[in-house]
Records
---
Amino acid sequence: MQEKKPEKSTTKTIPYLIVLVVAMFGFGFLLVPLYDVLCDLAGINGKVDLVAYEKDSDVIVSDRTVNIQFISLNNNGMPWIFKPMHTSVKAHPGQDYNTSFYASNPTEKAMTAQAVPSITPGYAAKYFHKIECFCFDQQELEAGKEEEMGLRFVVDAEIPDSIHTITLTYTLFDVTADESVASLN
Amino acid sequence: MSEHHGPAKGIKRWLFATNHKDIGTMYLWFSFAMFFVGGFFAMVIRAELFQPGLQLVDPQFFNQMTTMHGLVMVFGAIMPAFVGLANWMIPMMIGAPDMALPRMNNLSFWLLPVAVTLLISTFFMEGGAPAFGWTFYAPLSTTYAPPSTTFFIFAVHILGASSIMGSINILATIINLRAPGMTYMKMPMFVWTWAITAFLLIAAMPVLAGAVTMMLMDIHFGTSFFSAAGGGDPVLFQHVFWFFGHPEVYIIILPAFGVISEIIPTFSRKPLFGYSSMVYATASIAFLSFIVWAHHMYTTGMPLAGELYFMYATMLIAIPTGVKVFNWIATMFGGALTFEAPMLFSVATVFLFSLGGFTGLMLAIAPIDFAYQESYFVVAHFHYTMVAGAIFSMTAAVYYWLPKWTGRMYNETLAKTQFWIAFVGFNLTFFPQHFVGLAGMPRRTPDYALQFADFNMMSSIGSFIYGFAQLFLLYIIIQTIRSGKENADEKTWEGANGLEWTLASPAPFHTFSTPPTVK
């Protein structure tokens, strides 16, 4: 009796364990979207939506200003000259503003770049909206050419009083060689 | 029913092995060999750090050494050692004739030499072996990695497959092959800790496989899981890695706890104090291990609420761990204690692991971790848990069960000497690292500021002593197997309890073909 019984129950146990293995492998990949969703829900990590913002109200809080600072960074090995045209703007929540960043390609070949934004403090990210941004697309520059790249943004009228300053950082990545990196849009 | 025949002759016995004892033996010898390989890398590290300045190796090679030391020790030495122990002991402890899936057992062992060969072969490739640390953070391990990283990824895949198959086998054995009367709450503590460890492995290793698969895709197929330029996030790598990585440290330490829980009662001549609380504590540690991973990432810019949650959740682990430590002490309290080599190693494990646990609590405090992270204090902390926790208890297990495995008794005087050499060597190596770490010496560095010179020299001398102690252990084991005193005593140890001690010494090739009845 003892000889037969274990065999049967073993074959019952194995499928459960294999399902668990497969499920956990899937869960590893599920962490990728989960990470973005959680960061988004909690408004952390300074990640910003990379799609144009549609304004849904015309409220302008004219008695309040938020200091918006702009910083530019070149990723390791990126030779472009990249800087903000204005280092800061005092913005009324709800009102649209235009600013721009300067980029030039000092090398002797055409290059493609991708700017990746990040907002500090992270929890301010959900109150900073981009209507137009050069970071929505990849930027191409011929050898020796320069360009002013536009940004149109609005600070959400609902922004909490505790936020006085928002810093927007762009890191410029060289994506010339890496054809496979599709545009973020 | 089953025919009683001996093992096959020659190499076929090992290549086609399906006997749990043969496979266990192969696991143990393999892990011992890997222990010396990883130990050799450690010796290179400590020789370079003997004095400030660059003496022996260039920094790139030094980084390969730290990386490969960690990988080989974790995946090649400690994990297979405990799987080997599980193979040998679990069927004998629960009264089963063999493991539930003997052929898969064979496969999961023979994948290991393949994986380790792949891993070691990276040394001979252009660009050298991986040099990004055993935690292989992206983008160091993707954008800036040597070409050999692809081989590293496949090695990790194969190691993971081996561990998962081993765990499925262990769980299938424990769930289905217990002798009549062996209820779950009568199982020896070592079996319990392995059952829980196997669940951890099944849940954590596939996530590691996912992480390295994402790396592979980022490197070769143009995805951007961890590349910010393409919309990914390098911090995501750390989350995925540590979601595996934190359970991994308990995968390493829980079987060690199991070993201690077998040995301390034997040499205290008392049953284990608080058996059921031990079971629940082990399960609690396993559960908590999955929800504390980001304490490895306090400085990645987490929000305050995250820091607080991970800090408190991490400190919570001290409670079930404390339950275990106090239970071991209570087991010894009032017992008729003797200190043979297995007991010496076990008591040292309890003491030194607790020290490592305390430094872990210090590191768990987020604001303090900002100062301590990436310093030698961290190195001291995890070597107190990994070496004094896992390696010491593994050595205890070898001394404890060697008479049962070989039918021969080791030389007690030599073994006690070996313990004291290892104990002094270990503490001389790692205790000073607390001080240099608190004083600001960073980890993973081939050179350091002059004020750390004395402590580093002590550390290096200690590590050579500790390395010698392992060669001495090898000598003692070989001497026991070849010419140790015959030990025909079934029980071997006066206070030993459990089914494995009802079998002849050495344990016959086939055991419990008719299951024993447990009352």
---
Amino acid sequence: MAREIDPTFLELPMRRLAHTALERARDFGVSHADFRLERNRMQYVSLHDGALEGAQDLEDLGFAVRVVLDGAWGFASGVALTDDEAVRVAETAVRVAQVAGAMTRRPVVLAPEPVHDDVTWVSAYDVNPLEVPLADKVALLSGWSHDVLRAGIDHVSAALQQVQENKFYADLAGTMTTQQRIRLEPALEAHASDARTGRSDSMAILAPPVAKGWEYLSDGSYDFDGERAALPDLLREKLAAPGVEPGRYDLVIDANNLMLTIHESIGHATELDRALGYEASYAGTSFATLDQLGTLQYGSPPMHVTGDRTDTHGLSTIGYDDEGVQTQAWDIVRDGVLRGYQLDRDMAATYGAELNGGRSNGCSFADSPGHIPVQRMANVSLQPDPSGPDLAGLVAGVERGLHVVGHKSWSIDMQRYNFQFTGQRFYEIRDGELRGQVRDVAYQATTTDFWRSMEVVGGPSTYVLGGVMNCGKAQPGQVGAVSHGAPAALFRDVRILNTTEEGSA
Amino acid sequence: MHPATPDPQQLVEHALATSTSDDCVVLVSDSTSANLRWANNTLTTNGVMRGTDVTVVSFRGAGNASVSGSAASLAQVTALVEAADRAAADATAAEDRADLVAGQVSDDWDDLPGETSIAVFDDFARQLGEAFGQAEAADRLLYGFVFHEVSTTYLGSSTGLRLRHEQPTGHYGVTGKDGALTTSAWVGGATRDFADVDATALADELARRLGWAARRVDLPAGRYDTVLPPSAVSDLMVDAYWHSLARHAADGRGPFARPGGGVRFGEQVVRPGVHLLSDPAQAPLQCAPFVATAGSSAGSSVYDNGLPVSRTSWLDDGRLAALIQTRRTAAETGVPVTPEVDNLVLRVDGGAGSDLDLVGDLDDGLLLTCLWYIREVDEQSMLLTGLTRDGVYRVEGGEITGAVNNFRFNESPLDLLRRFSHAGETVPSLSREWGEDYFSRTATPALRVPDFNMSSVSQAL
């Protein structure tokens, strides 16, 4: 495995700038100062009907200084990698902390963390996709597109997003970390119309984004060929399928759909900053308030959800967070009861004694050098039942229901109660057997009702590590990538809407 | 500017001089921004950011390559140009290739970039500190965010373009809650300079709205006669705008595709009297009068960089007049090119008054504050789902009589533009959902919709 930090990152003068900035901050009597230099590289390639539509390489390079002065935060960032700029940015951060002091009514205190002196961490991948020639990527996606077009599909869009993220962090306490992460997301979506009905619709492959390299597209760990080959007929079947009759159904939900429901209704709901109201004016709060820790019956007894930043190919896996905290794994829901939250050092110091022994669990991140670290989501995953059934076993337990495959549209309220999701395709289940597709399906529920209705958790054969690359949070807005492992699972008596009927007045 | 840093114009000229490709377009964006964020009557985060982003698009033969990066030195720009030239040499033919735009030079090309600093909030911060004390004394909690940015774009090309645009962007949004967290209210808007934003007035308005919620009424899902204030209308119109790509319609996707092929240009798609338009000169929503794009996509083309952008009517008297086009898709669909514009205005003939004026005529219904978590459910009908947020008010006999639970809605913005019964005057507005991160320059009227589809109850407070 290529497990070394990119030497072109190591050539940057980060250690000198960190020393300069931190010493300047120390002059002002700060109780904490950290310096973070990041270089994030991204490439986005898109194709329309097999022809190159756009290819963009983006690099974000800069650094930030964050201080705590008289109990108030101050943050500033810059892009010129010079000693003068390091001093200016440190002084600006101090000035911002002085302005902030007048409006800060609860002093900032940071939870203790052991010093991690000059440590290095690199994610698990073989081939850095940003080092693969663009022509190879266009050839691969074009080939995929033409396979689908040749099968008689009207139009096809394809895309590949790839990220190389390098972070250097140093603080006055003596922690110094240098890290590198690689991730990518392939996408392929077919579009077709049915001349007879006038309907048009689309279907995308289910391949999740992962923290792997270019090898993900060819090493056989995911069946891209099989999925692509099946896509045209699946889309034609969807276009010809009958609309669902609205009502209440039992649902067997595949991992590739359930992972987004986990993201929205558990991942965000157990971010402690949301539960405390820090996001009340933007992303929202959480129904899962801190006073319910250890008592809230989040879901049914077989529900076991973990927060994890150590899962090998997880998108939010890393060695240390942007506050120098070593990453961990912990329970969020155990036996259906709320057991934990996602923390940063400020919240851990204030609220964490009963959560993680007063230590942060390493969830503070910024998406770029110009943004301030905030509490961001760990890989929040639903654990499979080690002796749980396979998909057929789950379906066998349903008399009248739907099998939900792939995620598409999603929406949830600001306290994470009411949600509505659609999917890539839905199959009718009758008397324990899968039938054909039905269309225009959305499922709608309240978070705790839904998770309490989870009767059977699927076994390891149904487990997939899915994820999203575009999780939004904070002001100014930041984007995060996060994985969610999930088995398939059986939910009883869930409300199903027909989206065509919803849209007709 | 920092003395060690070259001017943006120098970065542009250096890139153009360094490129060895057939042609080259360079975009330099210099920005400074400042923000304050608070929750529970105390400041939580803040910051001052500065950045210089450089995009080099190299054109060689039928292909091109776009490379962007933070760059503050000539050496960094050289590296970007070399990367773009290398990639362009290997590039596959671009489907949107066209002659580059030539010629124009902005009068203010030589001007330095605009700037902002944390001082833009001096008055606001002082008022906010006082508002925290008053809120605490009255057992209310304040949450919010203010942001101000000045971003200056310099676009230069080997075909002689030298275009400059200075864009101030600012917005504020404040949420108020009672101490028991049972009611919530919001006020927000956009501004170019914060001279017109008064934290005391915002806190007073929140106190008034929380007062409306003194009586709580639970209502079930259903269809309600509903007044959507300008912010909520902005939420829905921004979504409609983003889903107005000519490429997609030509491919048979979405509500503007003609069944059997073609685009529904000229067809009546919403009620007569409705006008949806963009205009870079529209005060106070002024935005870039030329195309500046780092990458080609379904709705943009790097070959169109520098193309003038002018007043564009998307819906004209209810008829589909234009969709977001590149020169490539315009040629395909046989209409003039209409690039995306960074502002949006909805106007209704005869629209008059505010949301509260519309409430005065409403005998039995609801007044919303804003919408949230809006996502497309069905592309063909443009059906959207989302939530009401921070204040749904019961209206009886033209008066606000209490606050109602939140709802999830399922509605298509086009359908709403067919079904509304009353419209207000068009005023500057801020989309709660999209305004802060993506699209803050909108002007919309309040709309009254006699049968707004509240699909289910949300327990969120």
---
Amino acid sequence: MSGHDSKYFSTTKKGEIPELKEELNSQYKDKRKDAVKKVIAAMTVGKDVSSLFTDVVNCMQTENLELKKLVYLYLINYAKSQPDLAILAVNTFVKDSQDPNPLIRALAVRTMGCIRVDKITEYLCDPLQRCLKLVEDRGFLEALKDLISDNNPMVVANAVAALAEIQDNSIHPIFEITSHTLSKLLTALNECTEWGQVFILDSLSRYKAADAREAENIVERVTPRLQHANCAVVLSAVKIILLQMELITSTDVVRNLCKKMAPPLVTLLSAEPEIQYVALRNINLIVQKRPTILAHEIKVFFCKYNDPIYVKMEKLEIMIKLASDRNIDQVLLEFKEYATEVDVDFVRKAVRAIGRCAIKLERAAERCISVLLELIKIKVNYVVQEAIIVIKDIFRRYPNTYESIIATLCESLDTLDEPEAKASMIWIIGEYAERIDNADELLESFLETFPEEPALVQLQLLTATVKLFLKKPTEGPQQMIQAVLNNATVETDNPDLRDRAYIYWRLLSTDPEAAKDVVLAEKPVISDDANQLDSSLLDELLANISTLSSVYHKPPEAFVSRVKAAPKVDDEEFAETGYSESPSQGVDGASPSSSAGTSSHVPAKQPAVASPAAPAPMPDLLGDLMGMDNAIVPVDEPAASTGPPLPVLLPSTTGQGLQISAQLARRDGQIFYDISFENGTQGVLDGFMIQFNKNTFGSSGATWDLSQDTSTYGYVPERFPWCTKLTTSDLEISTDDNEFTKEYPSSVISSIDVTIERLAASNVFFIAKRKNANMDVLYMSAKMPRGIPFLIELTGAVGVPGVKCAVKTPNKEMVPLFFEAMEALIK
Amino acid sequence: MAGAVSALFLLDIKGRVLVWRDYRGDVSALQAERFFTKLLDKEVFKHYFEELEEESLRDNFVVVYELLDEMMDFGYPQYTEAKILSEFIKTDAYRMEVSQRPPMAVTNAVSWRSEGIRYKKNEVFLDVVESVNILVNSNGQIVRSDVVGALKMRTYLSGMPECKLGLNDRVLLEAQGRATKGKAIDLDDIKFHQCVRLARFENDRTISFIPPDGSFDLMTYRLSTQVKPLIWVEAQIEKHSRSRIELMVKARSQFKERSTATNVEIEVPVPLDATNPNIRTSMGSASYAPERDAMVWKVKSFPGGKEYMCRAEFSLPSITAEEAVPEKKAPIRVKFEIPYFTVSGIQVRYLKIIEKSGYQALPWVRYITMAGEYELRLI
């Protein structure tokens, strides 16, 4: 207890940053160190101290290891926002990575690895090679693979972790365990640290054994890990055993393994509540797959008084899954005990659990019901309501068996105030109307408040009244049904209710016998499948035991928000997508669309390539070939902010906070793609890449790597213009091409020759003309980039508003744009 | 998704960040939990700061960052042996020696022990601590019971000692073909410290290891055999209309007379609104603990085969709410310690210590039984 560094947290004077700056540049070592500590303290509490970057980096050249570590810590945090300055630190890194002290060497290499700036990574390769004594030119993957065979188990374990991680982010098979590496890994397992064992076990779980014998062999080597004190090791071992068990055919072996796995799983429950919870969620999965493992251990899932509520709920779930004819008495006693506790949610779940056991175990149903009745007699309101809900399910499951208890249920009719309980009770009354003497009175008491009831209750009331009427077609029910049908059709706004009421009405009025067949039909049997996972999902989750996904019971893709680092597009792919016909490629090789694969660091940094040559006097469809290079218009151009909001393509709810709206637009004869990125989260989103695939606009498969924070882009739409190009005619349009027409009611052709000339200036070429009655018909042709031909027919009378334009083209998605262009040309 | 920790936050009671390290994007739950307990409760931080408090973290935030640096790399936990860590990360990092470099142990196969440790007197202390968990139903049935035991070791040994531990484990004794003289016990589940060679244990049930220096939990075990409740408590609660409540508590020790339970504490729940306690006991002292809504009866020394009584009377308010809220049904809870005694009957038969230099080491063994989750539900 020597440090008294807490004082660094408590300086909140004005002008802190300049003050710190001064101290950082102090000539005294101690003062500098203090200052760096202050900076780190400020960083920790969330202040932005990135402006001190240069000053802090200056302190890096020091012999003091502690100071060095702090500076590195700072670097890791801010290098991303100051990539250019971070390079200043590289020299020191390189020097440090050759330091005689291994601690400093490791620190330097590790820190460089943590800084996610491309340029640093380049520098990292050399020192890494030096440190690892690697000769191969950047063959890190190979090197990592070699490291698996290293003598040092710590090295093996970390190499495995690294490879597994690379594999996760890659589409290509990089790390495949062969039978050779398998035995290496199994040997290393005995020697490395506990965390290393977890890495190895996790990657082993991806290995698919060739046959039952190999699977048995793996399992045999892994089983001792069940005895490890670290529960992460235990669960990883359980995962492998469960996966390999699929292949093992010998029932003896399987039974033996099940026996071996039970005690370690049970022991996990004597750990801290947090670990218990994780264990319980995993056990929940295991029980669904192999109920036999814990079949005899149900007692350990009995709740203790002091268990946190989340542990109790999970235990209850597992108890239901493990309940069987053999242990049901004991389990029911427990449930009854829980149902008299104070926590409402827990009590409800306990009551529901009794019902689910009744549905699951036919022979125990009667005992379950008697427990429920005992609970109803306690007259605790929410217990009664919950009990009625589950009794309804029990009636569904075992029709015509337990009606004797209805009388007891009816006693608590008045206390019901929750919709679900009410609806359940009404369902019961309707279903057994013929056995309840005063069924009509009971229903009538509900009818008074019909308009105020929630939809759930209204629907049940409607159905129950119809049932009552069909079963007892006397005068009382007749009046009731009139009132209900009236209420449910004329008085309601709920379409579900209205539809159902009309169907009943029509059925009853046309054919009461048919109505009977429909309404009183035998219902399909229900089963207790609540909270049962779908088997393919279950298998996926089992393969992820001991990760968050097995706790959430969701596959990893469902919640890991980090987009996989976009795989660097392979050269070949680029060559394929790159659009190289454009002459501009040769001229402007540095343009982002170039196929060289340099993911250009975009708008902010790239000097905006001049936007297309001076606008032509008339709206020019021809634009300029220079426009092909996806020139980036400066972000602050005024035209950007106006205009209606863009249509949302990716709402923030599905995009994990990122909302993308985009639209194709045409401005000053240019085609723009307006994209707006909106960050709805508090945090910073990064690591974006935009890729335009090959498309009709001639924009090649360019990629933009928006590695800057999206937050800085805010609402400003990005615009990527293309020019459109119409060249010489191409008459080989086949007859089955689509034809489209559009009227321009306000356009006027003042003179045919002027029109032809004007169009020709925009590379729409004249072919022929004819007269049809008083109308002039012009035939023209045009060709868009990427060789898309257009045949155009313009029809109109000179001097009279109203021009009709018909177009034939194989690419119909270009047609709207074309029409828009044409409108501008002939206005 | 491989198991890696994405970030680590240490917050103060108001949720403000004290110390944080961000590693990446995804997290393995169990590893993180386990890492946390390693980090906070038991090992590393305790070792460094004795008491883990907000103040101690603030005071040492630089060291904390250093520790985090070494213990976790890109979200992968690496190295959590406090003893070895403290060899190269000193609390008073100010006075730094030139020769600060990681000890060899960090990358050795025996990563938990450094070489060259020397003691004048070579000693090993072994504590066998068992805790009894029991849950008794309101009608006196034992719903569940188990025993969780731990072998806690403190080693003061020179060099790289090879240890071999012998227990009266039935599986082992039968495998060796020995007549089961005395009692042999069945252990349901055994968990070992990472120093124990698990593969060897799997083969022939020998517990062999090179121990870390200092104190550690060598193994924990669990038995789910039915245990007779060591201390049986019966409580009769009589509610006289709405004015007062009478408690009569009987406690009986059900173990051999030569053992004695110490620090017995029996907690009997009473209604939330009880007042005016009037308590008499035949042994020990009892008092009303309103903060726990219970009467706590303490008996310093409780020999085996004895029975003690405690009577209490509380006043209740005569007015109650119209809508009766169901009363909290807390169980009776019991705490005690019984030294020189184990419920399971586990015995350390031998602890062999072999080191190249051939010194003689003295093993000391102690046994103790404690109450764990010891609950008796009221009617």
